[in-house]
Specification:
Immunoglobulin-like; 20 strands; mainly beta; 2 domains; five-stranded antiparallel β-sheet; binds copper (II) ion
Amino acid sequence: MKPLFSFLLIGLIVIASSCGDDDEPTPDVVSPFQEWASASVDGINVKLLGQERFFVGYNTMMLEVFDNNDNPITGEVKITPMMDMMTMSHSAPLEYTHGQALNAGGSLEFATVFVMPSGEMGTWTVNVEVLDKMIEVPVEILQPEYSKLTSFVDQVDGSTKYFVAMIGPKDPQVGVNDLEVAVYKRQSMMEWPAVTNMTMELEPWMVSMDHGSPNNVAPVHTGNGHYSGKVNFTMTGDWQIRLDLLQNGELCGEPYFDIFFQ
Ligand SMILES: [Cu+2]
């Protein structure tokens, strides 16, 4: 056997055996974080990562902070999403997943509920305060084809504005799906607290065929304004996830989400 050929043969065997390893079943992997935005101030470099492009709705995000030598910066950090709308500005709901400090790798996982898209109405930044510096990171917020955020005014007091984000199902299937929504209220332009005391009723509805489905479980509060239940889609197509939100037994609002899957 010529040396070149045997070298190639060994190479093929190595490739074949490593491919075999990849075929082993792997647990469900959450899509990896990718970088979508960055900014630097005075040697502090900030990156914002997400599992998909930032959108109107509940975004799971990752902050990474490094110095100019690529060493991670650690310690306390404050994050403030801000939308500048020319005549006014406002923040958005924010959730720190594991507290408010950068870990040893200089990163921090958090979630933001962007409440409007970027565009003619205004522009968004995610403002990061670390080491007594403020780094404003411009971000572009897209409007998804099927809205993952809806809002309503409290029918009882006639003024409180609530926002409901659909977190899942991300990939709806025929059958019973895990349903997760999160509820916030706009207390002021800067304060968007989670609402933890709603009770919910759920009715999925197929508008085009005018029917619902059995075996649904209305979402109940699980913490931090998140509510979990089950939604059963008996066929593919267009569905509305219709919710009734009640506080102290009184109906506050009837938000719904349109979804479509094949
Ligand atoms: Cu706005």
